[in-house]
Write a structure and sequence with these properties.
Layout (H helix, E strand, L loop, with lengths): L1 H6 L4 H6 L1 H4 L6 E2 L5 H8 L13 E3 L1 H32 L5 E6 L12 E9 L6 E10 L3 E8 L8 E18 L2 E4 L2 E4 L1 E6 L4 E7 L9 H20 L5 E4 L6 E2 L6 E2 H9 L5 E11 L13 E7 L6 E2 L11 E2 L6 H4 L1 E6 L6 E12 L2 E13 L8 E7 L4 E11 L17 E12 L12 E9 L2 E7 L10 E12 L3 E10 L7 E11 L1 H4 L5 E7 L8 E10 L2 H16 L1
Antiparallel strand pairs: 1-9, 2-4, 3-6, 4-5, 5-7, 6-7, 7-10, 7-11, 8-9, 10-12, 13-14, 15-18, 15-19, 15-23, 16-17, 16-20, 20-21, 22-23, 24-27, 24-31, 25-26, 25-28, 28-29, 30-31
């Protein structure tokens, strides 16, 4: 069954044979044949995977034929995933000699499909739930994609496009087929999940445009060489994954909760979902250098935290005192600005990344550089609040944190149902996409926009975040992600767009460009709890619009925290 479950996805003869039985499902069907001769009739090839007999490693030539047929679908799914994920990662890791960096439009993996070597079945559920495979990947790609960059010292010359071509990729892939859906004696594969197993080996050519070879060309290539495998590792290594659906959203599939639509099944069982929250309080940093005044006066620092790439949260900005110490829990509003909820998807695999950042207010705007970094496994926190004093190896100091881990209990309900509880608690994932056609607030005819996000419960603010500043534009592309934990379905978002004003020695200030309001119900009542909103900005002299994407995940926070309290009482008793 297993060999056929995989091999017959793309068999045209099989699709015709089963068209009358399964015409309502636009998918490639799976036959429960078990002999090689029948399989050869279906596939029309002698490259039959012998792990029908469950041997350990197999030649994957049959899979290469399959991927060649599926390549347009896999290319689209992969590039769509990378386009969304790469923008904030590029910005977060932007080197200091670049003012801007982004992915040029038209990115594709090219026409040459992935090429697999050996194949190993690492997990097979005989009840028909899922199949896991480990596969050696050797891929000489004809992909060509460009990075649109603006060098800091050549900003007046506009953007340059740096080409990344002739990529060679060597990696180990994890492929999951799930679910295997029974249908009239046959089966259908609902989706393919694709991920990396470890950091890939990557080689490529860098094509520099005229004007960059003698300036930042060498520095840019030295940055790109380790960055590309690193970013592929962070974005695509399991539990990260690319999801390729093979059945329509309305297909009924079996699940632990009974028969449900595939669209709901994918959201619950296939897509990465938060399984817990790490609550972190940043207390202090020690070991910084204090300089009283002058050109070399002490710089400003902040601490940045994340459990996932490009999903960072940060403290407010502080200068060290005479002892080289920064306290993040003293002063007005300090407790709120130093306490964070970080989402966790795979508690046993993820780490809390703590970065000490230095901030400079230059004539080109605020710029940051990483000073030091330390990582802590999520599960080292435990469900009881624990204190950590983590060494910072570069500066020889330390950062002090309080951390605890709270597992989440997902609430099951049908999205789109107009009957809802306005006090239903959940988690909001918000992607700030862009603003368009903003008012020009500066004398050069542009603005330096930033967005502040407030979550309102009546007249009370229950959450707030702020975006980065994007310089000299009326159409900023933010592509930033924000997460709010333990909101209520009846809450409302207030989006405030400002223009940043500041200089090398002046204090920063912000001019209002407009604001918009969005009710969480727009996501709560939407299919799958997901909604995209484009709102006109309102207010004095306001102009333009703002676009956001919302995803609502209902969770039983009270039950999760009560379970932790109960376990503590048992231990104490």
């Amino acid at each position: 069954f297993l060999g056929l479950a995989i091999g017959s996805w793309t068999a045209a003869a099989m699709r015709k044979r089963l068209a009358k039985r399964a015409g309502r499902i636009e998918a490639v069907n799976v036959m429960t044949l078990v002999d090689g001769e029948s399989l050869r009739e279906v596939l029309g090839t002698a490259d039959i995977p012998s792990w029908v007999k469950f041997t350990e490693w197999e030649d994957a030539e049959w899979l290469n034929h399959l991927v060649a047929r599926l390549w347009p679908m896999l290319d689209e799914a992969t590039t769509n995933t990378l386009k969304v994920a790469l923008a904030p990662v590029l910005d977060e890791n932007r080197p200091s000699f670049l003012q801007e960096i982004g992915l040029q439009d038209g990115f594709t993996l090219g026409d040459s499909p992935l090429r697999f070597g050996g194949l190993k079945v690492s997990k097979y559920n005989p009840e028909g739930d899922e199949v896991h495979m480990s596969i050696d990947l050797k891929w000489n790609s004809d992909s060509k994609f460009g990075l649109a960059i603006t060098p800091a010292l050549l900003s007046t010359m506009g953007r340059f496009v740096v080409g990344v071509e002739d990529m060679c990729l060597y990696a180990k892939l994890k492929i999951v087929l799930k679910p295997l859906i029974p249908d009239l004696g046959c089966g259908t594969i609902g989706a393919i999940l694709v991920a990396l197993e470890g950091t890939p080996s990557v080689d490529f050519e860098v094509k520099l445009p005229p004007g960059l070879e003698q300036t930042i060309g060498s520095a840019l290539e030295l940055w790109l060489r380790p960055f590309i495998p690193k970013v592929l590792d962070s974005l695509l290594t399991w539990p990260k994954r690319i999801l390729v659906p093979l059945v329509p959203p309305e297909t009924i599939v079996p699940s632990k909760a009974g028969d449900i639509r595939f669209e709901e099944y994918a959201n619950i069982y296939l897509k990465q979902q938060p399984t817990g929250v790490v609550r972190v309080k940043v207390k202090e940093v020690n070991g910084l250098q204090y300089v009283k005044k002058g050109v070399l006066a002490s710089p400003t620092y902040f601490v940045e935290l994340n459990t996932r790439p490009a999903r960072s949260m940060r403290t407010a900005d502080y200068k060290p005192d005479k002892s080289g110490r920064i306290s993040f829990i003293e002063g007005k509003g300090a407790a709120e600005e130093s306490s964070f909820d970080l989402l966790v998807e795979e508690a046993d695999a993820q780490k809390v990344v703590v970065r000490l950042m230095q901030l400079s207010q230059g004539v080109l705007g605020p710029s940051t550089v990483e000073v030091d970094k330390v990582e802590v496994p999520v599960l080292s926190a435990g469900t009881d609040q624990s204190s950590f004093q983590l060494p910072l190896p570069v500066i020889g100091g330390s950062v002090s944190l309080d951390m605890s881990y709270i597992p989440l209990q997902r609430k099951m309900r049908t999205f789109g149902d107009t009957r809802f509880d306005p006090t239903e608690k959940g988690l909001l994932e918000l992607r700030l996409v862009r603003c368009e056609d903003l008012r020009a607030a500066d004398l050069n005819g542009t603005s330096d926009p930033r967005v502040k996000i407030f979550v309102m419960r009546g007249s009370r603010t229950v959450g707030k975040k702020k975006s980065k500043v994007i310089q000299n534009t009326l159409n900023p592309e933010f592509n930033e992600f924000f997460e709010f934990v333990s909101l209520e379905a009846g809450d409302e978002l207030r989006l405030q767009v400002d223009d940043w004003d500041g200089g090398a020695f002046g204090k920063s200030s912000y001019d209002a460009l407009g604001e918009a309001k969005v009710k969480l119900l727009d996501a709560v009542l939407a299919p799958n709890g997901e909604a995209t909103k484009t709102c006109a900005l309102e207010g004095k002299k306001a102009k333009g619009s703002i676009t956001i994407e919302l995803k609502w995940l209902p969770f039983d926070f009270d039950a999760a925290e009560e379970e932790i309290r109960r376990s503590r009482r048992i231990v104490a008793g």
